Amino acid sequence: xxxxxxxxxxxxxxxxxxxxxxxxxxxxxxxxxxxxxxxxxxxxxxxxxxxxxxxxxxxxxxxxxxxxxxxxxxxxxxxxxxxxxxxxxxxxxxxxxxxxxxxxxxxxxxxxxxxxxxxxxxxxxx
Length: 126
Hints:
Blueprint: E1 39-47, E2 50-56, E3 65-75, E4 78-87, E5 93-97, E6 105-113, E7 116-117, E8 121-124
Antiparallel strand pairs: 1-2, 2-5, 3-4, 3-6, 6-7, 6-8
């Protein structure tokens, strides 16, 4: 995966996954729900510009894909999305290569299903 991120920043509350049409952690059409956020994110730096990020998948809800967004720190609290990709529902890690030092990047991981986007979880790479 190459580079990737958006204005706002990791941990900016409503910034991550701020889709007004999506229900956060509550019931959608009866018992149909979006997945919870992936958890236990951890990052292992492989070099100055490459890291592997690992996570655990939420249980209890159907997952159809894993969405990843890579963001770059633009300074002054501003983040820009550099890349977005979707992966198979069983994906539990990804290796990220950036164009600059890892500490300027963050990765957001989200589980999705046919009912919508689950809550994202993010981690700084450096």
